[in-house]
Specification:
By secondary structure, the chain is an alpha/beta fold. About 35% of the residues lie in helices and about 15% in strands. Strands 1-2-3-4-5-6-7-8 form an 8-stranded parallel β-barrel, surrounded by 7 helices. A two-stranded antiparallel ribbon has the order 9-10.
Length: about 260
């Protein structure tokens, strides 16, 4: 690992981005619908979060469910990529699979092309579609050829710490790709994830907001089973700070070894 690992926090609002920044995040991934695995945020949300200060990467995912998209959905996400980068996001987080679980290289070429045409310096991340790929390691090995420099992954496991062996294989298969461990990450997992070969970590650091309603409640759509459950998530600064400390401690133990024993 040639650089100190980064801490990315998934946020859904300007308030969440400020909390992440104030408690030590290096950057944020902005989305909406965390409870659905994350969806593309509005342009207004991107602009507002950019104003909060930390580098912003925008999740581009036009709907929940699988990652197999038709041409119209790919065209929509390409437009969302362009919109996010024009709103001053530093990068986008994209992904697409074929029905048999391979990377959809045609769809990804459209999305990467939209990003490069809009901002040649944008960082492009493959999102956790990779964890539903038929061969996640082979998928990561193919990323440099697609112009994708980063992957967000749990190693194909429900929680990243359980996918450590796959994370190790991914890091070996694509040495130039930033392998960002994400998915059920807790601060106590961070040292183990770095030891497995992750080069950065990603977590939502979320907690449920206290409902503000004072009036009655009825379920709406996929809302919670009760009034107490039907709320939204907010960024928990305590968890972000704990993750920052864990990351710095783990990186501090590794960096001297990688520098041949030189002091920090």
């Amino acid at each position: 690992m040639s650089a100190r690992p980064g801490l990315e926090i998934a946020v859904v609002s300007p308030a969440g981005a400020r909390t992440a920044r104030e408690h030590g995040a290096d950057r944020v991934e902005l989305c909406t619908g965390l409870e659905l695995g994350g969806l593309t945020p509005s342009t207004a949300a991107v602009e507002a979060v950019v104003e909060t200060g930390p580098p912003v990467h925008v999740l581009v995912r036009c709907r929940p469910g699988d990652f197999v998209y038709d041409d119209e959905e790919v065209a929509l996400m390409a437009a969302e990529v362009r919109t996010a980068l024009r709103a001053s996001a530093r990068g986008v987080v994209v992904g697409a699979l074929t029905p048999d679980g391979a990377l959809d290289t045609n769809a990804l070429a459209v999305l990467v092309g939209a990003a490069r045409d809009t901002d040649p310096a944008a960082q492009i991340t493959l999102h956790r579609a990779v964890d539903q790929a038929s061969d996640p390691v082979a998928a990561v090995a193919a990323l440099p050829g697609l112009g994708i420099t980063r992957v967000l992954t749990s190693g194909g496991a429900p929680a990243a710490i359980g996918g450590s062996a796959v994370l190790t294989a991914m890091a070996a298969a694509a040495p130039g790709v930033d392998v960002a461990a994400g998915g059920g990450v807790r601060p106590g997992d961070i040292a183990g994830l770095l030891a497995a070969g992750a080069t950065s970590v990603h977590l939502s650091a979320k907690s449920r907001a206290t409902p503000r309603r004072a009036a009655g409640w009825v379920p709406l759509g996929a809302g919670g089973a009760s009034a107490a459950d039907d709320t939204h998530f907010v960024t928990d600064g305590t968890v972000v700070a704990e993750a920052r400390r864990a990351l710095d401690a783990a990186a501090g133990r590794r960096m001297p070894e990688e520098a041949g024993g030189a002091p920090r």
